[in-house]
Amino acid sequence: MSELTHFNSAGEAHMVDISEKTVTERAAVTEGYIEMQSDTLKRVLDGNNKKGDVLGIARIAGIMASKKTAELIPLCHPLPITHVDLKLETNTEKNHIRCQTTVTTSGKTGVEMEALNATQVALLTIYDMCKAVDRGMTIQGVCLLEKTGGKSGHWTKGS
Q1: In this structure, what CATH number is given to the domain that contains residue 144?
Q2: 86 FRET partner, CA 20 to 30 A, in 34, 124, 135, 147?
């Protein structure tokens, strides 16, 4: 494992200097889940939620969040995101909704934080829209599945 890069030689937090890095095509894929009561998931699937289209609004919230990542994470570089694909898949056997996000850019640093942020905000939006009927929902398993590009190349979870 390499050293932490967000600290300078004096041990102070700093933004990593990426000026000498090469621009490459980069992508990150993340996932996470929100578990809920079966009645809550049925409301989402039937479109009976009083706040509106839960999955559609969560998808837009996640995409918007990916673009705001550098404003929320103090040492994160602002990036020109070229694409965000956010999929929300329901599972009635497990009573959960899975969010998988892919973010891409042509840049000097990766988009892992943007993809993680998008996934988490999409799941938080689902929570917000359904909390009136199910305050016991849990968000879990938010993680990086894969990243490509840059000096470190291709990485997949479990490799």
Answers
A1: 3.30.70.640
A2: 135
Range of the domain at 105: 28-151
Strand partners, 91: 96
Please give the model's pTM, rounded to 2 decimal places: 0.91
Is 128 among the residues known to form the active site? yes
Confidence of residue 53 (pLDDT cuts 50, 70, 90): very high
How far apart CA 121 and CA 102 sit, in angstroms, is 14
E strand intervals along the chain:
24-35, 81-91, 96-107, 138-148, 155-156
Q: Look at the chain and report how many structural domains it folds into.
A: 1
Confidence of residue 2 (pLDDT cuts 50, 70, 90): low
CB atoms within 10 A of CB 24: 16
- In this structure, is residue 158 part of a structural domain? no
Catalytic residue among 17, 39, 53, 128: 128
DSSP state of 113: H
Averaged pLDDT for residues 27-37: 98
Q: Is residue 103 part of a domain?
A: yes
pLDDT at 1: 42
